[in-house]
Design goal:
3 helices; 10% helix; mainly beta; 339 residues; Porin; 16-stranded antiparallel β-barrel
Length: 339
């Protein structure tokens, strides 16, 4: 079972390649590609120097037939520039708004995860998102997803639900429901995820989240709240004879303002501020991380922008609760083109 995800993964890729290799005339094929390219400077607290790095993504999209679509996602690693296959999936669709996706796909747990990383308003994800990566709640998995995306017509709701498998011998079930045009908000969403292990099928871990967003003229606001199980800290706690789970609590909010300009070389500027609170253990809420991020996006075109982020992360520990450290704080600047 250890390498079963590899077989599933390569099966999907092979099926995809087989589909795009169908002779012309036997299927109506059309290929397009999307992607992004970013180059910038990044400095993390206590680094000896500022790092330069490039980030690239290219997605090959193939329409096999009217109701079959596939994608191959190729990326580079930020620190080594190594090119690798990030994922591949096949989408099955019909006349109904509900679609099915099979392959290496995102779980989309929480509002922040509904965006691709190159589409985020900030250069990096929040500390809460990075924290949940360790437990597999917000990373890709080999699986099946059923979803509906609201596009301004029909019933104002979206949803996605899926089942995923990881090489760590864990499998996940996730779901998300969003009501658009919610009273006082543009949307209100609720997300949940469960993790089971093949090694211990009697116990499960999970997390829950709620999120809202609101736009008023050129001001945009979004917020989300998370509560869930910390699988790693729970394992360490049990070594000391305590069997209750360790739970984390997180809050993220982001406010941004769009300022449109009548300049030939600058389309708009977008200042933003993001604040996050993360308590790794709800039994000790005074031991936590605080993230305050100030950012500025300068748009040359809709998909061409220069970004700069000042990201301050304050952390304390159980021994020195009154003393905060700047670990994980960083300053980042980046020029990005998407297509």
């Amino acid at each position: 079972m250890r390498n079963i995800y590899k077989y599933i993964y390569y099966t999907v890729v092979c099926l995809f390649i087989t589909c795009i290799s169908v002779p012309e005339g036997s299927a109506q094929t059309a290929m397009s590609y999307t992607g992004s390219l970013s180059t910038g400077l990044y400095y993390e607290y206590q680094d000896s120097h500022t790092r330069k790095a490039n980030r690239a993504k290219i997605e090959f999209n193939v329409n096999i037939k009217k109701n079959i679509k596939g994608q191959i996602d190729i990326r580079n690693r930020k620190k080594t520039n190594e090119i690798y296959l990030k994922g591949a999936w096949i989408k099955l669709r019909s006349d109904s708004p509900v679609k099915i996706k099979i392959g290496s796909i995102k779980k989309r747990f929480g509002f922040e995860e509904t965006f691709s990383k190159d589409e985020l308003y900030t250069i990096d994800t929040s500390i809460i998102n990075r924290h949940m990566e360790y437990f597999g709640y917000v990373i890709r998995g080999q699986g099946v997803e059923i979803y509906r995306k609201y596009k301004g017509e029909g019933h104002p709701y979206s949803f996605n639900t899926g089942a995923y498998y990881h090489e760590s011998q864990n499998y996940y079930f996730s779901g998300r429901m969003v009501k658009h045009n919610f009273p006082f908000f543009d949307h209100a969403g609720v997300s949940g995820i469960l993790r089971f292990s093949l090694l211990n099928s009697k116990e499960s871990f999970g997390a829950f989240g709620i999120d809202v967003s609101k736009s008023v003229n050129s001001m945009n606001f979004e917020a989300e709240l998370f509560y869930g199980d910390d699988t790693d800290a729970t394992a360490f706690r049990r070594l000391s004879g305590r069997w209750e789970k360790v739970n984390f609590l997180g809050f993220r909010s982001l406010i941004r303002k769009e300022i449109k300009l009548n300049k030939s070389r600058l389309r708009k500027i977008e200042p933003l501020v993001m604040f996050c609170y993360l308590a790794p253990d709800t039994e000790s809420l005074d031991v936590h991380q605080l993230q305050s991020l100030l950012g500025l996006n300068l748009y040359v075109t809709k998909k061409t922008r220069f970004r700069i982020n000042g990201d301050m992360v304050l952390s304390n520990n159980p021994v020195e609760k009154d003393k905060y450290y700047y670990t994980d704080s960083r300053v980042s600047s980046e020029f990005q083109i998407r297509w």
